[in-house]
Amino acid sequence: MTEATLPHQNVTFESTEGEAHGYIAVPESGEGPGVIVIQEWWGLTDHMKDVCDRLADQGFVALAPDLYGGSIAHDGEEAVEMMSKLPAEEGARLLLGSVDYLLSRDEVTSSTVGAIGFCMGGGFVLSLAAQARDKVSAAVPFYGVGQGVPDSFKTITAKVQGHYAEQDGFFPVEEARKQEAQIREESGAEVQYFYYDAPHAFHNDENPQGNYREEEANLAWSRAVQFLKDNVS
């Protein structure tokens, strides 16, 4: 991934959970459609900030809310513990506040937002789409797992593009295929899942577990960016 050269900053905003924090990246044009970026179980890491910067490079105003309040996990055991201590309802409410905050910013030209998330964040993408309804027009979960995954997808109105791994030890591909069918059946939304010959977290080039797969990551990213461009306005 390239070094960020775009305007970016840490921000503070109000949510139903009180004062929340995050990282925002704005394109060189100074404006663009809004996208929420939802962190992996590691926290709001440099990699997640880089995802925001890359989206800004594609013309989006990208906001990554900090679901852990500044904490970063350094190994898998710590990440599991931190994820388990984040109540799904609390995370969902904070994300709802981040949608309202992003839409209120002068730089955001869209009337809806997109949402993209990875690992735990991929689960929360689906939760956010289900709760924010027509405020989210495009939902992009990457190998979504964790307590953020909702039981029901009936209230999702966003188009959904999923990116899942065929060698995922956290979320077996068979379960991902069932989820794809469930979203399509319950929501009636347009749903397309892509499956990659790769392990969990294949998109993260800074993953300490070494699961990054460059070819699959680049393909998934190009698909996701085009999907957001087509559906967030």
From TrEMBL:
Pfam families for the chain: DLH
Domain Dienelactone hydrolase span(s) in chain numbering: 22-230
Keyword check for Lipoprotein: no
SUPFAM superfamilies: alpha/beta-Hydrolases
E.C. designation(s): 3.1.1.45
GO molecular function, one term: carboxymethylenebutenolidase activity
Keyword annotations of the record: Hydrolase
Lineage top rank: taxon: Bacteria
InterPro entries referenced in this protein's UniProt entry, alphabetically: AB_hydrolase_fold, Dienelactn_hydro, Dienelactone_hydrolase-like
PANTHER family according to UniProt: ALPHA_BETA-HYDROLASES SUPERFAMILY PROTEIN, CARBOXYMETHYLENEBUTENOLIDASE-RELATED
Protein name in the entry: Carboxymethylenebutenolidase
Organism: Neomicrococcus lactis
